[in-house]
Amino acid sequence: MKSKIVITAIGKICTRCERDLPLAEYYAEKTGTLGLRAECKSCWSTRISNQYKANKERVHARNKAWRAANPERQAAIRRRSRLRRMYGISIEDYGAMLADQGGKCAGCGGTSSGDRRYDVFAVDHDHQTGEIRGLLCAACNLALGLLNDSPERLMALVAYLLQHMDVLAEGAIGASS
Questions:
Q1: Distance from the Cα of residue 20 to its chain's centroid
Q2: What kind of fold does domain 102-170 have according to CATH?
Q3: Which SUPFAM superfamilies match (predicted)?
Q4: CA 20 to 30 Å from 13, out of 49, 85, 122, 153?
Q5: What is the 3-state secondary structure (H, E, C) of 81-101?
């Protein structure tokens, strides 16, 4: 037997707890009356939580099977979620940043991310402020991380490398004479 949906001046009455609640207290549902679920958010959450607890193994098995059957979609969902959670940006924001950089690493200008697992550039951000600086290949991102984002350490390392390149060049010139 279907519960009767009652619309009131305030909102509507939940079919489960029978409270008269504002429409904002109901989740959207395309097929529902007024495009809303019949039960309020609180009752729906409680019911879904109880269903999950009662069928935990079945839910886990179904989710695992879906992930195995849809690895590309799962990877996209995971990536979108990670970008939003860690950096507060969308896939579209990421794409726009990459386009602004010409599809290249902001550090070295390389066109490959250098990441064998995923062909994506790392989101480089200031660890103090959280502000995003750009997209880096795996090597540039790792180098910055190992140098603790220190310009002084990076410049000292560049000076060291240049000094030794001069020594090698002088040795090569002397050896060929």
A1: 38
A2: His-Me finger endonuclease fold (3.40.1800)
A3: His-Me finger endonucleases
A4: 49
A5: HHHHHHHCCCHHHHHHHHHHC
Q: Is this structure's pTM higher than 0.85? A: no
Q: How far apart are CA 4 and CA 33, in angstroms?
A: 10
At position 69, the amino acid (one-letter code) is: A
Phi/psi at 118 (nearest 5 deg)?
Answer: -135, 145
List where CATH 3.40.1800.10 sits in the chain: 102-170
Q: How far apart are CA 40 and CA 27, in angstroms?
A: 7
Report helix, strand and coil shares of the chain as percent, to nearest 5: 55, 10, 35
| pLDDT for the residue 120 | 82
Rounded to an integer, what distance in angstroms lies between the CA atom of residue 144 and that of residue 106? Answer: 12
